[in-house]
Amino acid sequence: xxxxxxxxxxxxxxxxxxxxxxxxxxxxxxxxxxxxxxxxxxxxxxxxxxxxxxxxxxxxxxxxxxxxxxxxxxxxxxxxxxxxxxxxxxxxxxxxxxxxxxxxxxxxxxxxxxxxxxxxxxxxxxxxxx
Length: 130
Description:
- By secondary structure, this protein is mainly β.
- The chain has two domains: 9-63, no CATH class; 68-121, no CATH class.
- Helix content is 5%, strand content 35%.
- It has one helix and nine strands; from the N terminus they run E-E-E-E-E-E-E-H-E-E.
- Strands 4-3-2-1-5 form a five-stranded antiparallel β-sheet, with no helix packed on it. It has a four-stranded antiparallel β-sheet with strand order 7-6-8-9.
- The longest helix has 6 residues, at 87-92.
- The chain starts with 8 loop residues before the first strand and ends in a 9-residue tail after the last strand.
- The model has no long low-confidence stretch (mean pLDDT 90).
């Protein structure tokens, strides 16, 4: 993995990281801030591959891959469903024949079968309002 200022990272143990520069020392050019659970922050340096040391370390950088959520309208005896990026689009594209909605969530780039969840939602499902 090569670190990029345009991507989002966290530490191997899950703490938030904010990269602030790629102009640090030659062996550890990436400079960033780790935020601890109590809100305090500390500055760290990483190699171009995101390592903190010459062995695996809890402060190594791991890319944060955003979740992908896909909605599908399900109809009786019909194939070739359309993928929708959100529930509003799925509802707008639905006909009265819809019998359910599928919500598929892919986490961590779908690297493992445990990173994919599929939920069957009722026809009249609405996202809870915050």
